[in-house]
Fold these 4 entries.
Entry 1:
Amino acid sequence: MHGRCRIIKELQINEEIREKEVRLIDVDGSQLGVVPLKRAFELAAERRLDLVNVAPTAKPPVCKIMDYGKYKYEMSKKEKEARKNQKIINIKEIRLTPNIESHDLNVKANRAIEFLQDGDKVKVSVRFRGREMGHTEMGKEVLDEFAKLIGDAGKIEKEAKLEGRNMTMFLMPKPE
C-alpha cells in the first residue's frame, strides 16, 4: 500500500475512503462486485496499487484499483493537450472619427487586416463628439467604407450599431 493521502480533483484514494463497502473494479476494468472496504484494500495491496474512489456519489461508491500516480500523470497530459489545441481569440479595437481622411482610413484598414490575419476579432468604432451626433449617417458611411477596404480578409460579425456616442461594428476573420 502506498502511503499517499492526497485529493486531486476531489478523488479519494486509499485511507481517505471511509465507506463500509464499495463496488470494486479491477485493474483491467472487470467488475469484482460489492465487497467490504477492508477486502478492497487487501486486493489493492496485493497488486501494489492504489484504491481510488471514482464515483463517490454512487450507492455504494465505485472504487477502482489503479496506479494513481500514473492516472494523475495521464490526466495532466490530456489537460495540457486540450489547452494546446484551443485558440485564444482577442478583440482588437480600432477607433475612427466621422470625418476621417481616406489615407488615414486606409492605414487603419491595413492594421485591421493584420489583426484579422492573426486570427483576432476587430471592433471598429466611430466616436461622435458635439454636433457630430446630428450626422450619424456619416459614421455609418465611414464604417461601410472600412468594411469594403477590409475585403476578403474578414467578414462582418455584427453590423454597425449606434450605442450612445459611439457607433460600433465587429469584424471576424474569414474561416479558412
Entry 2:
Amino acid sequence: MMKKVILALATTLVIGTGTTVFANPNTFFSGSAGKQLTEKFQQLTRNNIWEQKEKVDLKFNTYHPQGMTKVGDLYYMSSVEILEKPVKYDQPKDGYDRTPGKGVGHLFLFNKEGKLLKDIKLGEGDVYHPGGIAFDGKSIWVPVAEYRPNSKSIIYKVNPETMESQEVFRTNDHIGGILRDGKEGTLKAVSWGSRTFYEFNEKGKVLRKTSNPSHFIDYQDCENAGKNNIICSGITELPQPAPSTAKYELGGLALLDMKTMDMVHELPIPLFSPNGHVVTRNPVYLENTTQGIKMYAVPDDDQSSMLIYETNISKK
C-alpha cells in the first residue's frame, strides 16, 4: 500500500472523468518516499491515534470487497459477487473441505467521489474469488482463486489505463494476495489465510515456498513498501465467552521483509466501520504523508464506504 507514492517522472492519463498519474516504473521503488514510509511504519504502536478524515460512499454495489490499490486519484478494487456460498462437507472430498459455490470476480475502477468508472469480470468456472491486489508501476496484479483452501488460482495482470486483463499463469493453490517485486521481477504471494508464502517467476514456477511464522492475523491485502519491504493488512476472528456465538474481529498491519518474508513490525488497528467490522477486514491502502501515514479502507460489503484515516507519527 506504500509503493503508490507519485514521483516526479510521470505521464498523465485521462480515464473517463478522472485523471491519474503513473510513476515511471524504473523509479517507482526507489527514492526516499518508500524509505520514509517504512521508517514511519516502524514507529507505529497501538497507541497511535487514527483520525477519520473522510468517508466516501461508493455509488455502486461493491459485493464483498477484497483488495485495493490507488494510482493517482483513481482507485482499483477487487471483489467477489457470491451467487451461492460454499458449503462445508462432513468429510473432505477429493482433497476439498467444501463445495466450490458459485460467483463472479470483479475488478472495479472508481474515482475519489465514489463513482464507478469501469467494472471488469475476472476468473472462470469455479475460479471466481479475487484476492489482494497490487500495482507495480505498470500493471495491476490480481489473483483469482476458488473460494476454498488448497484449490486453484489464475493470476492476471491488468492494464490500468485500458482495464484489459491478461492471464499470466495458473497454480495449484488458493492465492489470496499477490504483488510484484519491482527490483527482482518475481511475484510474492500468500495462500488462503496467508498460512503459506510463495515466490513465483512470471511463468508461474514456484521459486520458494515457506510457512508463515506469524499467527497474529491472516493477511488479506499486501503492497510494496520501499525497495525491500512489503506491508500487509488483515484480520483474525476470535471467539467470545459462552454463551455468545459472536466473534471478535482483530485487525492489524504488518511490515515484512520482502526477501525472507519475516515479520519486521506489526500492530493491531482498533478501528471499526459503521457496520461493526474492523477496518483492515479486506481492502486497505496506505500512503505516506508529510506528518505521518494515511490509510484507506473498505471494510463493509455491498453498499460500502471508503473510510480514510490519518495518524501523525509525532503524536502517540
Entry 3:
Amino acid sequence: MSTPPAITIAGAENAHQSFKDSFSYSSYLRLEQLLAAQQPLTDAHDEVLFITIHHVQEVWMSLIIKELTGAMAKLTAGDFEPAMKMLARVSRAQEQMGAAWEVLKTMTPADYLEFRSAFGKASGFQSWQYRTVEFLLGNRQRYMLKPFAEQPDHLAKLTAIIESPSLYDIALQALAKRGLLSASALRSTFDAVTESNPEVLAAWLTVYRNTAAHWDLYYLAEKLVDVEDNFRRWRFNHVTTVERLIGHKTGSGGTTGVGYLRRALEVVLFPELWQVRTEL
C-alpha cells in the first residue's frame, strides 16, 4: 500500500517557530500558571471537572466586573454608546457562564460524593468576585460581607462597592439629569436591595411611551433587562445543578443549599423595568 502524500495547508509553512524575542501563545496567556491551578485533592475522576467549571465561572466574572464598572463610569459621564456595548458584552458573558452548568450536570451525585468531603467548608458563597457582581447590580445586604471578615483587602473593596451607587442607581441618576425624575427619588444610601418606587416607575413609563424622544434611555433600560434576565437564568441553572447533585442537603458553605438559592431567585434587581411592562 502506498503512503498518501502529505497535505500542506497553504500559509502554514511560514508560521513562526522561534519566540526568544517575543511572546509565544503559551507565555502570553501564562498557560502553565493557569493549568497548574487545577490541583485536585483526590483521585476522583470528576474533581477536575468540578474545579474547571468553577475556574471558568471566575474568569468570566472577572470580565463581567471589568465591563460593569466600565459601563457605570461611562453612564456617569453621560457617554451612553460605549456603555451599551459593555452591557451587551456582559450579557454575552453571562450566557457563557450559564452554559457552563450544563457541563457540570454530566456529573452524578455518586461522582460528586467521591471528592465532596475533601474541600471542607469551601463554597461559591465565599466568592468575592460573585459578590462583587451582585453588589454592582444592586443585590446587597450587609450580612453578605461576613464571609470576608478574615480577608481585609476583599472586605474593604466590597464595603466600598456596597456603599456606592449600583448600576441601577446610576441609570436612575441619568433619568434625573434629563428631568424625568426628581432628586428626592434617588437613593442616598445604597447598602440594601432597591425597592420599587412609584415615581421611578412613572419616569420609565415616560421613556417607554415615547421611545423616539428618549431612545438612549430606552435602549439602556432594555440592556439592563437583558442583564437581569441572564442573571436570573444563571441563578436558576445554578439551583437546579445543585439540586441534581446534593438534593436538599446543607451547602458546603453552611447555607440551606437549595432552599437558600431558591429564595435568592426572588430578588428583583431593577423592579420598575419589569413593572413597566404591565403598565404600558
Entry 4:
Amino acid sequence: MSAPPTIAMQALQVARRSRSGVTLRIVGPLIVMGLAVIGAVFVPILYNFDPLRVDLASRLLPPGSRLPNGSIAILGTDQVGQDLFAQIMEGLRVSLVVGAMTLVFAGLVGVLLGLLAGHFGGKLDTALMRIADIQLAFPAILLAILIASVLGPGIMNVIIVLSIANWVIIARVTRAQVLTLKNREYVEAARTLGAGHAHLIFRTLLPGSLAPILVILTVEFGQVILAEAALSFLGVGVPLGTPSLGSTISNGTAHLTTAWWISTFPGIVLLILVLATGILGDAIRDRFDPRLRSA
C-alpha cells in the first residue's frame, strides 16, 4: 500500500491544477521564449557577428575576457576566436526558424490528414493510420538521420526531414479529437441541416480540435529544436559555416577539459528552451482542460 500524500504534495498538486498556477506556468515560458526570440534577432546584429570570421589570437578565451577591440566576451570565445554569446544567439535564430517552419509544414499536413481520416473513416482512415503506424515503428531521430544523410546538409533539408518525421503525431492527435467530436450533438445538428463535408471539417470539427492541436504543436516545437540540434551535432543538419546550437556543442567536445564553456553554455540554452516549451504545452493543456473550468 502506498503512503498517503503529504500536505506539501497536496498543496503542490492544488497549485498546479489551480487556474492561477496554470496562468503562471504559461506566462513564465512565454517570457523565456520571448527573450530567446529577441536575443536571436537583435544580438547578432548588435555584435555584427560574422560566422566565417576567424581570430586565432582570441581563441579559447574564458567567459568575461576582454577582446583586442576592447569589448568583453561575456561567455568567452570558441576554438576559432568567435564570441560565443553572439554565436549562440545566431544558432538560436536558426533553431527557432527551423522549429517554426517545421511546425508550419508538419502541422498543415498532419492536421489536414487527421481531419480527413477522422471524418471520413473507412479505407481512407485505415490507409493513413497504417502509414502512420509504419513510420512510428522507426525511432523518429533515426528516421531523420537517414533522410538527412540522403538529402545532405541544409536548413531547408532539415525542415523537410523534421516535417516528415513529425507529421504523424500531429495527425494522430487530430484524428483522435475528431473521433470524439463527430458524434456530438452540434455536429449532428450541422449534418442534419445539410452541411457539406468541407463545412463539417473546417467550420465544425476543426475549431473543436484546436486545443489539443495547439498543445501538441507547442510540445513538438521543443522536440523539433532538440532534433535539429542532434542532427547538427552529428554533422547532417545545417551546413558548415552556419551556426547551430548542436554544431557549437559538437565543436566544443574536443575542448571539454580546457574550454568547457564552448559546449556547456549552448547546452544550457538548449535545455532551457526545450523545458520552457514542455512546461508551456503542459500548462496550455491544463488551461483548456474542461475539468478546470469550475476551478
